[in-house]
Amino acid sequence: MGVSTSAPAAGVRLVAMDFPPVNALPVRGWYELADALRAAGADPSVRCVVLAAEGRGFNAGVDIKEIQAAEGHTALIGANHGCAEAFAAVYDCPVPVVAAVHGFCLGGGIGLAGNADAIVASEDATFGLPELDRGALGAATHLARLVPQHLLRTLYYTARTATAEELHRHGSVWRVVPRAGLREAALELAGEIAAKDGALLRLAKAAINGIDPVDVGRSYRFEQGFTFEANLAGLSDGHRDAFVARSTGKE
After folding, report:
1. Would the pLDDT of 242 be above 90?
2. Does pLDDT of 101 surpass 60?
3. Model-wide pTM > 0.85
4. How far apart are CA 175 and CA 99, in angstroms?
5. Would you give the distance in Å from CA 2 to the centre of its chain?
6. Rounded mean pLDDT, 140-161
7. Are 103 and 57 in contact (CB under 8 A)?
8. Strand 175-177, strand 104-106: pairing
9. Which residues on neighbouring strands pair with residue 131, listed in sequence order?
């Protein structure tokens, strides 16, 4: 359980999340993921990173139970900072990052996939931000990288999800494959990327990030300020308590 790193092919690092039951990461998990991604990118022999997950889905966001069980605002602040660190580690990774997404990609999962350079998804993958139902705001910055503006707003306001096939039609998902073939398909794309000149790949990643029209780190931190404002205004606890009650069967 946790974050693991392996080398399935020359020039490729596989970073995998495994936080049962649903890959809702605790505060330490976001930092652990950030550290693993940075270590992979810092290795001069690595030319592409694949970000994947074990279990039922790619990522269900933050561990709301941890936030509700903590005293004061320490866990909420920790989750805010941890998510920002992990999302930045994907975006700022010196080499391309391919996200292999299966099952649910929600909340923080959108932050990770939205900051990746390419996405390969399984046929059962769904993408969305249930933030308003959880008393939070955030990751619209990253969903905006996956869908057009009006769809972004509708998905955000309704907390609905989009399928992998829908995102493929919008051009943000490279391939949609059967779940059993997801890891192989992601590694195939990573291998094609890793076959290029490593030094040029790192220059290309820096150049593409440099012409990005949106400062994703700054934009996301701006969003997070509203999450904390909602919390201080007393708007968030009720939604998070209701979610915990539903997820534990105590509703």
Report:
1. no
2. yes
3. yes
4. 11
5. 15
6. 98
7. yes
8. unpaired
9. none
SS3 77: helix
Residue 131's Cβ-side half-sphere holds a number of Cα atoms within 13 Å equal to: 28
Q: How far apart are CA 5 and CA 77, in angstroms?
A: 27
Between CA 179 and CA 1 the distance in angstroms is 21
Full DSSP string of 174-222: SEEE-GGGHHHHHHHHHHHHHTS-HHHHHHHHHHHHHT-SS-HHHHHHH
Neighbours of 241 (CB within 10 A): 13
Structure confidence by residue, pLDDT tens digits, 195-237: 999 999 999 999 999 999 999 999 999 999 998 899 889 988 8
43-90: pLDDT as tens digits: 999 999 999 999 999 999 999 999 888 888 899 899 999 999 999 999
Separation of alpha carbons 90 and 248, rounded Å: 32
Q: What are phi and psi of 9, to 5 degrees?
A: -155, 160
Per the listing, tokens 């059962």 go with 124
- Specify the 3-state DSSP secondary structure of 42: helix
The Cβ of residue 134 has, within 10 Å, a number of other Cβ atoms equal to 22
Asked if pLDDT for residue 112 goes beyond 80, the answer is yes
How large is the C-alpha radius of gyration of the chain? 17
Q: C-alpha angle with apex 108: 211 to 117, nearest 5 degrees? A: 35
CA angle, 172 then 111 then 136, to 5°: 125
What band does 157 get if pLDDT is binned at 50, 70 and 90? very high
Nearest to 30 by CA among 104, 83, 70: 83
Size of the chain, expressed as the number of residues it contains: 251
